[in-house]
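Following up on my earlier thread - several people asked me to post the actual chain instead of describing it. Fair enough. Here it is, all 206 residues.
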Amino acid sequence: MAEIEWVDFLIINNIKYYQNYDGTKAVTEEQLGDKVGEIKYMLNEHACTDHVEKNGDASFLPIGTAVYALKGYKSEFRVVANNKIYEVKDNSKAATIGELYDIDGKVEKISLESSKDGSLIGDFSKEASEEFVYELLNLTNVGFNAVYEKTKHEAGIFLRVHLQDGTSFRMVYYPKANGFNAGAFGSEKIRKIIMSQEQVKAAVGL
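Reply from S.P.:
Thanks for posting it. Predicted structure:
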């Protein structure tokens, strides 16, 4: 029997979500929206290495755990289970990053983090943050696997997207491939926005 280390994920309505463990807090009952599904199978201590993930699966959530929408966001982007926020990882129905991430009009700022320890290095300017978000949301969603094929040997730049409700999430940008771990390849404009920030230039030695 092999010991498997699962990432904390769930699959509901054929959308895969990962727990956002470092950019959100425990959710209160008042923040819960409508129920969108429930867990049918827990992989941890039950699934074999060749298990094929399917709708209703979760790595650590027990069978019967209810999954809810999070008020303020579309359930295609964020859901709640066991008081934890889960964020979309893969949604084949999303044509653009804007359809993948429900963050239009909800972003406070973009910042740069250390790839070594995740500490804050600095914030983008307000103008750059706004331009970055506009460009990002219009990128075509090609999926994580397509980007990974071009970036698997490249070190990434850690960006954090801070939302107006005080939550945040990390994105990784790969400058050589001009790709994002969110599942998109960037435009030349978004590459210029990122690489022109003084904090980024200092971090990558430009």
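Residues 97-204 form one domain. That should answer part of your original question.
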